[in-house]
Amino acid sequence: MIPGPPGGPFGPGGFGGFLGHEGGPGGGRHGRRRGGPRAKRGDVRTGILLLLEEEPRSGYEIIREGRERSGGAWRPSSGSVYPMLQQLEDEGLIEQIEGEGRRRPYKLTDEGVTYLEEQGPDLTPPWEAGADAYADARSHYEELSTQAYQLAAAAAQVAQAGTPEQVEHAKRLLAETRRNLYLILAEEDVPASGEAAGQDEDSEDA
């Protein structure tokens, strides 16, 4: 019987879950991504201006709104938002106004409104761009996860039904596959299995 994805040596934490173990390409524990793409400085500037064009918002509300609109894909940090708010205020594009309680929202100045009227058509909301990038990354992750599980299922069959010699052969193949995957990340050329086999045959014929 082939072990399924949820558990066992070939499930999460074992070979079948290698894409999602902690420290692996999948992110945090059990394959959770630790946030989305890091917010770039230009994206933070654009995001702040576009959000303030809608209505006055505090720094906290800007951070929360950016994350909610992108489904967590675009995650501006307080360390990037608050310095940018100060910069935009120094440029005269936004100003801080009185709010309820301790809330001190920002709003666009007349100069900021004019700036967006001129530049707005060329600006892409970062939460839209971030969501697209996250969707692409998630699609690639799922494709590789499927292939990894199928490979783990085949390895499980060999482990359960193979001879000692076949098991040793499978272990060598898996170790070679793991090394080749890391070579891909190192941007080294890795020949396809068919090409490698053809080269071995040519060497033997010679």
Mean pLDDT value: 74
String of helices and strands: HHHEEHHHH
Number of strands: 2
Taken from the alpha-carbon principal axes, the silhouette is: rod-shaped
> In angstroms, what is the radius of gyration?
26 Å
Structural class assignment: mainly alpha
- The number of helical elements comes to 7
Q: What does the main sheet amount to?
A: 2 strands, antiparallel
Strand fraction: under 5%
Helix content: 55-70%
**Main sheet strand line-up:** 1-2
Low-confidence stretches: 1-39, 192-206
What is the distance, rounded to the nearest whole angstrom, between the alpha carbons of the first and last residues? Answer: 44 Å
Description:
With 206 residues, the protein is mainly alpha-helical. Helices cover 58% and strands 3% of the residues. It has helices at 41-54, 59-69, 78-90, 110-119, 126-161, 164-185, 193-205; strands at residues 94-96, 106-108. Strands 1-2 form a two-stranded antiparallel ribbon. The chain is rod-shaped and about 80 Å long. The chain starts with 40 loop residues before the first helix and ends with a helix. The model is unreliable at 1-39 and 192-206 (pLDDT under 50).
